[in-house]
Amino acid sequence: MKEGKDLHSSTEFENNTETPITRKGFLSMTGKYVAAGAIGSAVISGGISPVSAQKNEPGKQTRQLSKPDEQIVLDKWKSEYDQASAPVPMPLPPDKRVGYAVVGLGHLSLEEIIPALNMCKKSKLVALVSGNPEKMKKVAGQYAIKPDSCYSYQTYDQLKNNPEVEVIYIVLPNSMHKEFTIRGAKAGKHILCEKPMANSSKECQEMIDACADAKVKLMVAYRIQYQPHNRKLRELLQKKEFGNTKMVEASNCQSSANPDHWRHKKKLAGGGALPDIGLYCLNTTRFILGEEPTEVFAYQYSTPGNPLFTEVEEMVSWQMKFPGGVFASCSTHYNVHESRRYRVLCEKGWLNLDKAYAYKGQDLSTAKADGKLELHQNIGIAEVNQFMTEMDYFSDCVINNKKPFTPGEEGLQDHIIMEAIYQSAKEGKPVKITNLKKPVDYRGPEPELA
Ligand code: NAD
Description:
This protein is an alpha/beta fold. The chain contains ten helices and 16 strands. Strand 13 (349-354) and strand 14 form a beta hairpin.
């Protein structure tokens, strides 16, 4: 299951099978024009396509059970005026799924990742790593993990002797990502690492190098890049359905209350709102535009005397300039009511995504002028569990020996930009960024997600 030759391909959207909603198609669905303020609705199915048989190497096809001609097709009974269902799921039998060890049993692991592993079609939970043996025992009991597949941070390296584990998913405080990625790579396991990838671009490079040396795959868990509403919006921009893109406004905000939590300790978190949640504005803007910023200008603020923000920042607001003439205005805050959204302003209309970075509830709407009318459209897309999609995607990379779409280099780019943002806020002037790679030069092939 080690990485051989990476299969790069064009980053164009040619592999995406979703049908764009044209104005004509939209009108045929609603049967009428809608004036400003009225909302039309079109719903698109989500799901995962069967494992591709095309890019396998000989000897790597042991899990290849879902050939296209084996797709189960059920009798059609719905009319075409209702939303089409996704294809019947084609889960791999449990003994063929990619085994995961989850490292760190905090909120994200216990509330999202481990439950999602139970819903996966290509991935399964086979091992746990924790510093808390009592908690790990409970979780192992709940999810039927064998006692000898439970590891401490000290015995973590023994994962190399556990053949059931192919992927290690690192869900620890940010400062621990580097150590556990490098140790995991040395144990010969593929690495899925939570965002932010590390605490600095230097650490990111060390992680990339360690995984390359060990010939294992490294993916940063940027779930938004596999999320259907965000992908649909990107597709509409790529097709210039609203003309050229001119501006992006993005913000990701929430509130926190515990000054003793690792997120408020600089050494463990690396920073405050920016690397934790502002990163979504940064990474998603880069993803939808397909470009890298050349310059940033930032403000940073923390309320004096607030014990939450003695070590890390409360708020960052920053601008990014892109080579194609697009400007992005982003902000992040740790001390306001939750709000996670962005809007893309184009020559002929706008696209708005509310709850853009949330685990669920995305709400995609657009507006476009049509003579005296302004057409408003609400694009409904069936929700998918983002963690399930992301893990099954990475398992597919492992099974079919593909480089991930969000490899370590994607995390490195974000850290280079975040360092420029902090520098700009500190110096009070714009900072140019000259050392970013083109995404086409490091990304794996476009994910085949329905
Ligand atoms: P958490 O505090 O709930 O869990 C962290 C775990 O690490 C706990 O089990 C804790 O016991 C353990 N730990 C080990 N050493 C520790 C130490 N020295 N100090 C504190 N905890 C220690 O955090 P979380 O919300 O689960 O976040 C974990 C990682 O996941 C972070 O990198 C975070 O950025 C990322 N995250 C990603 C998303 C996403 O949507 N992709 C969402 C939340 C968190």
